[in-house]
Amino acid sequence: MAYQPDVTKFFALALDPIHVGTGGMRLGRVDMSIVREPGTHLPKIPGTSLSGAARTYAAMREEGKFPQCAGQGGHCGDPHCPICVTFGFAGTQNGSFQGLAQFSDARLLFFPVHSLAGPVWVTCPEVLKDLGITEAEPADEQVRVAGGVKQSGRLNLGWLMFDVKSNEPLVLNLPQVSQEILKILNHAVLVSNKMFGHIVNDNLEVRTSVSIDPQTGAASEGALFTYEALPRASVLYFEVVVSDPKFYRINGQIPLNGDIEKAKGAVRKGLELFASLGVGGMNTRGMGRLEVLNLKAGGAQ
Ligand SMILES: [Zn+2]
Questions:
Q1: How far is the CA of 216 from the centre of ligand 1 (A)?
Q2: Which end of the chain is more exposed for a tag (fewer CB within 10 A), N or C?
Q3: Number of other residues whose CB lies within 10 A of the CB of residue 224
Q4: What distance in angstroms lies between residue 94's CA and the mean position of ligand 1's atoms?
């Protein structure tokens, strides 16, 4: 039988606005923009951000057993260290190792928008295709809506108006991993791929904040800055691929004694803390908490 790595799809709900910045300040509409996918310009969370946060939190959960393994450098590189083996290490006496767990980028799946019919979650065929769900693309001026969206005729999404195709209710066959997902599926709205990009980019949160001078504790001069964020209640998904340690050697030894569950456990422990400690920047400003919804079930395969 061919070797199959362990692939888990995770669904995640933003409990706060989430800002994963591009790192640089930029002139334009906002000072601090978020990371986007090159082709579609849709916001995403890079896999490196997910993996970095998961590594830090997984190391915290080990209660000081691997204090130097949490960050970017100074890894122990021990073949039995669940942090280094799972998330990778570099520059140790055992050399470098890519890590058994590889995180995909987190892509936007459902984007929350207020409408006259209450809150709805917008998605599009291009996004669903990645999850193996095929839906015909509506015309740009049309939408299909799920049963919980009590609106016939016309539906506004932000400032845009759409015709509701009432003869084709939207039924999305997604893993029903939580009550939140059930509610969202019941209030889903399918728009064209092009309109999805417009709706998302027109409805991102843009916040203005003041930067504080750390010396004086006062607002520094000219310190107002704006930043954008994915709104609370956005739903994203990502994949984590965990390779079998039996196929690797670190300094001649099979890492983690060949127990893939140790690596999967480290990933899970890290992801569990996303809901309380968050991802991305500005966590101290009440941002970034992301609840991974299907951790208890071990993820939808
Ligand atoms: Zn280590």
A1: 39
A2: N
A3: 11
A4: 11
